[in-house]
Amino acid sequence: MLEHIKKHRYKILCIAPLLIFLLIFTFLPIAQVIILSFQPAAKTDSVTPPGSGDNFTLAHYQDLFFQKDFRQAFFNTVFIAFLSLALELSLGLSFALLLCKNSKIIRFLRPLFILPLAIPTTVVGVMMSYLFTASGWLNRIFLNLRIIDSPIYWMSGGVKSLLMIALADCWKVTPLVMLILLAGIQSIDTSLYKAARIDGAGSFYIFKRITLPLLLPSITAAVIIRGIDAFRIFALPLILMGQNLKVIGTFAYLEYSEFNNPYVSAASAVLLLIMILSAVLFYIKVVGKKGIVPA
Amino acid sequence: MADLRLVNINKNFDKVQALSGVNLTIKQGSFCVILGPSGCGKSTLLNLIAGLEEASQGKVYLGEKEITGLPPHKRNMAMVFQNYALYPHLSVFENIAFGLRIKKEKEKQIKEKIEQVSKALNLEDKLGRLPRELSGGEKQRVATGRAIVRDPELFLFDEPLSNLDARLRVELRSQFIKLHQRIKKTIIYVTHDQLEAMALGEIIVVIKNGRIQQISPAQELYAVPQNLFVASFIGSPPMNIIKFTLKKKDTKIQLIKENLVIELTNDVTQKILSYLGQDIYLGFRPSAVRFGPAGQIKGKVIFIENIGEDSYAHIEIIEGTEIIAKVNDKDARVGKNSVNFNIDNQAMHFFDLQEKRI
Amino acid sequence: MPTKIYKNLKFNFILLITFLIFYFLGCQPTEKTRTLNITMSLGEEEWRVLREEIFPLFEKEHEIKINSYQIEAGQLATKLQALLEAGRSEIDLFAQDNMELSRLINQDLVLDLSVYQSRIPDEVLANLIDSCKFDGQLMFMPFRPNVQIIYYNQDAFKKYNLIPPKTWDELLNVAKTFKEKEEQGKVLLKAFGGNPTATQIYEFILQAGGDPYMFDDEGCVKAFTFLKELWPYVSEESRRAKWDTTNQILAEQQAYLAQNWPFGVIILVQEYNLPFIKTYSGWSGPRGEFHVIGGDVFGIPRNTPKKELALEFIQFMQSKEVQEILVSKLGWPSIRQDAYAKVSGWQEPYYQAVTTALKKGVFRKNVTWWPAYVKYISEAFREIVIGEAQVELTLKKYKEKLKKDKSLYK
Amino acid sequence: MKKRIRAAIFLITILILILVFLFPLYLVLKISLSKPQDIFVEKPTYLIKNFTFEHFKSVLLSGETFLNPLKKSLLTGILASILGLLVSIPAAYSISKFNYKLKYALILVIFMTRMIPEISIALPITISFIKIGLFDNILGLTLAHLIRILPVSCFILVGVFSGFPDELERQARIDGASASKAFIKVVLPLSLGGITVAGIFSFLLSWDEFIYASYLTLARPTMPIKMYYYISRGDIFSSATYAVIITIPVLILTFALQKYIKPDFLSGAIKG
Fold first, then answer.
1. Do the chains contact at D236 and C248, CB–CB below 8 Å?
2. I need a labelling partner for C370 at 20 to 30 A (CA). Which of B197, C177, C285, C292 fits?
3. C85-144 tens-digit pLDDT
């Protein structure tokens, strides 16, 4: 083992600062949160730093599963995550396909598509509240275009609000997915398209049998980066729906800041961590090697 | 039968004139090679025939049917690319079967055809592999297999051997010839390697800057180059070309350049008499040099290249002008630095100042 | 091309680093002079008056410098807790919204001030002092009472010749008229949940003679039944209505009648100068007119070394002289009976609405489990008023839930 | 002829898409530029009726209350990006040299830090920051922002360096350069584009960060905190103006360096 380290001495030296930083400033706090989630809710006056009580309890996790609130938050999170991921991938892919030509105009217009990525989430929250209110712009446009005859009450909870949050999140992040997929598309050798066209393939067939499979590694990259953040959504649901529609992120925040229950908040955060980790590992197993290393 | 006819083809990409005034007829079943330096428009011509690119002006006919605007998959042609263009994510079997799957042929039929083709190209044990696991030669054969299995009307090869090592190239060349004899379909083969062109092509089309220089069988191309470019491009080592002034001294016709004087015998002179007093180009192959004490031309040997059973001497005849002469072991005395030689008058080529053959 | 860029990039890269190091070394303020760090959550106009006219008086008298910082009500508790647990005391005195006090108590972040009750001037209203107590312990000091007033769109009311409603029935009638005339509800209720919704229901229950914390007594049932009856005629914007969005809804004329804190006057009238916005104290229910008294209270972080200076500052702020500046310049209701000052011109009519509402003011009993109450009363509101669930049964259900959660609090 | 029509249709669809896609941003711009009486009406118009710069004037000329947050946000953003790059460039370069399995595992471990809600670990981190004296100053906020930045910049840079042909570096080593020299002389200059992209993303992540900014600032708020102040007071004009001001530097950044944003830097470690 020793000479192995000696051989890679230089590499380990480079990675050290990164891993040390991450260890101190993220792995330790995460460990603290995990420990907190198993600590009994001792009747301490203030939240003494965790690690003091050493015994171990699953009370908070049981408590979570019996809470209708948490089950609802769990469903909302999964629903929003999958909906926004699906939207982002399909929109991102169509934008990428549209913008992959390198003509001068496209190169000029492409940064415009990157703009939403640059806007802070607090600003996006404000913008979306202009759009999605009962008398907001979206209803007015739909009414003018006769798509709907009476205004949709986006903020009244239920599937409509979930769709609203997914759309808001997807608006800000689709550019990132577009850029990742654009990278994948532009790395495909164009002579493949020529060969396929000569073999008699139509453009849809080419997309299905060549572009898509070769894009799998980029799709994996997009799913992993976005998937993690989609489950972890917090700012948008809080700004747009507050306590009316909870996702695990807002549930953990409110449980801690409003309802003075740090243990349950920590437990819900840990559950979210386990959920994301297993989702990512499951995806990698399903996609397998060909989904990760480009052909 | 379906001859391929290209009529007054022009092709330009915004400012660059890729093809201009191309008229070409390729008889059905012939092995036609399109030869030219890189960037002369030969690949553009091939893409145009395949339908991957559209001609700016002009028409393309296959037999009686005009196919100018027809999309590639309606032309029933197959093409092999320089970088093979194998689908990296599909196995060799799937790569070859790609065209058949599009035509929705039955699985049994596909299996049979691929068995047959893979046996012919000895790829039987490679069918399950992925392209990146194959060697250059194997990749090349898979690309060819993919073209053959579709049994197209016409084959297009875009410099398929340029990425391979010399020995493999020679081996695959013979396979192409055998392939052509077996399937008797038209093959249009693009290359920049004139040796390959001479070896393969029944008909060779030489192109430069988008213009056809000459269309003729290999031997005629070597023996009767129609212009200076074809003359210098065909044959290795290249033909010696020197500009002389044509003079008449009492009854003798002479080629004069500075202090070098070459007298020509009468049988050669009829066709060049009209150029008396003007400058013309004299071209002669290295094999046309005849050493001997009576040689009119005196020169100094610079070095001798030995490549296999014949070797070539680089001789400087006048200040700054060198020629290459083929030397066989008989002329051992060439080792000395100064030497005399004559040029076999029958093997002389003459070109006017417009580089046209006289 | 890259190497050329790389050359001068490398040069100004180093330049930037040196500049940054100098800068951020230099910007650590060295705190030699005696200072008092206080935090509040005020509007820009309010900050200007305090910093230019009030703080200098105290600073001259005690030769100290006051550092005043803006912290949102929702973010104060977290900062105090972080500072306390890290053993640092950056904040010596804070003013906090009296709706957000329970977390400060539950996490034991403030100093018990009972022993200093005698320092409060006698002119300060007695019930105001009681509102700063938790289980009889004086944990905070009165700073500024506040009460919500009703904003209404004068033009709209004139158009349908309606008068601002003074009773529940008139309110219902006004709501029905607007709905009928403009096929969209124009009376705004706070349905977003959280403190805005809880405070509104608290007032309706008081007006129906109930005890809000009983959750399911006769008054509560009457209040919820009325709200259930009113809801169909209410503006759809109510779902997103809370204290900050109400101003926008009123300004955009999506609603013609809405209740909100007086800070809306400055924004709607002074900043947006909307002529049609008028105010009055509000309506009364079957058992009379009641309004919850909100506002801010002073608190002292447990670990501050400058407790004495902070207490002197509180006393200074409660003095007659300061109260009169606050009344005249900002139209704040005074905590003293004897602070009579003329409210400046344009603010006068709006100030009237605040004083009359204050006369009908009632203090919310301070309980540590207020957040749990807010959570369940909001859910009850959503289920009964919006979801049209049965009143008594649902209230009982949430009463049980509240009882179970009380154990989490002190 | 057919080709030109297709190109025209193609361009029109893109313009429509841009219009639809950037409509929310236009809304905020419209509010920040129009007079109150245009906004506070039953049916506000689509176009800006009468222009006014008074909101921008009032914000830009408000002196310290505007300049301080801007200065802090800009400095924190730049410092965080530079520190982020200084840490992640060497690390990403070594990670990109491992075989794909190990590389993938490392990337997942680094991304583990982003799998827990930011809010849950924000408080313990804030407490430890305050303990070591990093309260309310630029260094503290920068280190806090690095927590968000490092995983992303590492991911991008591993992608950039994986795509880098090894022959160039080997060539430099043959010419006598030591490992670090080869890296600085050959690899760094040529992957400058990818590093810029990582820099831009780092700046973006720091520029719009809210949670750590609200926990770790007292006297000197950052731009998002300042903007949240106006949102929570319901003052839509100042919040819209701040929103536009917050977006402008990023707009300039992306446009100025867009030739660097060659998309293939973003395919991440997966390009392998």
1. yes
2. C285
3. 998 888 999 999 988 898 899 888 999 999 998 888 888 888 888 888 888 899 999 998
- Specify the CATH number for the domain of residue D90: 1.10.3720.10
How far away is chain A from the Cα of D63, in angstroms, using its nearest Cα? 22
In angstroms, what CA-CA distances link C299 with B166, C76, C218? 89, 11, 36
Q: Shortest Cα distance from A184 to chain B (angstroms)?
A: 14
Domain that holds residue B167: 4-230
Burial of A43 (0-12, 13-18, 19+ CB in 10 A): exposed
Q: Which two tokens stand for residue B144?
A: 């060819």
D253 is a domain residue: yes
At C35, is the secondary structure helix, strand, or coil? strand
3-class DSSP state of C217:
coil
Cβ-based neighbour number of residue C180 at 10 Å? 10
Place of tokens 């409003």: A258
Residues of chain D contacting A127 with CB distance shorter than 8 Å: 24-25, 27-28, 243
**Grouped pLDDT means (10 residues each) for chain D, 272 residues:** 81 88 89 84 78 88 88 93 92 85 85 86 89 88 92 87 75 73 77 83 88 88 88 84 86 73 50 38
**D188 — contact with chain A (CB < 8 Å)?**
no
Chain-chain contact of A192 with B130 (C-beta, under 8 angstroms): no
| A-D contacts at Cβ under 8 angstroms | 241
User: Which structural domain range is residue C78 located in?
Assistant: 31-145+294-344
Where exactly are the structural domains of chain A? 1-27, 38-290
Give me the CATH code for the A38-290 domain, please: 1.10.3720.10
Nearest to C408 among A133, A155, A260 (CB): A260
Would the CA dihedral through D17, D21, D25, D30 be positive or negative?
Answer: positive
Strands (E), B163-309: 186-191, 203-208, 211-216, 240-249, 252-257, 260-264, 279-284, 289-291, 297-307
Together in a domain, D15 and D133: no
In-domain check, residue C15: no
Distance between CA atoms of A174 and B69, rounded to whole angstroms? 38
Chain B residue nearest residue A206, CA to CA: B102
Which chains reach chain A with 3 or more Cβ–Cβ distances below 8 angstroms? B, C, D
Q: How far is CA A59 from the centre of its chain?
A: 29
Report residue B269's pLDDT band, with 50, 70 and 90 as the boundaries: confident
> How, if at all, do strands B203-208 and B31-35 pair?
parallel
Q: How far apart are CA B62 and CA B153, in angstroms?
A: 10
How many domains does chain C fold into?
Answer: 2
Domain limits for position D9: 1-52
A67 at C interface, C-beta within 8 A:
no
Distance from CA of A253 to the nearest CA of D (A): 7
What ipTM is given for this predicted complex?
Answer: 0.78
Distance CA A64, CA B105 (A): 58
Which residue has tokens 């002289």?
Answer: C321
Cα distance between residue A207 and residue A191, in whole Å: 14
- pTM across the whole model: 0.81
Neighbours of C44 (CB within 10 A): 16
Whether residue B91 is found in the same domain as residue B192: yes
**Residues across chain D:** 272
Do D and A touch (≥3 CB pairs < 8 Å)?
Answer: yes
Chain A residue closest in CA terms to B91:
A295
Beta strands B310-318 and B297-307: pairing type?
Answer: antiparallel
Distance of CA A90 to the CA centre of its chain: 15
A37 touches chain D (CB under 8 A): no
B119 touches chain A (CB under 8 A): no
The DSSP letter of residue C386 is I
Reduced to 3 states (helix: H, G, I; strand: E, B; else coil), residue C59 is: helix
User: Would you say residue D114 lies in a domain?
Assistant: yes
Q: Check whether residue D200 and residue D149 sit in a common domain.
A: yes
C-beta atoms of C193 and A260 within 8 A: no
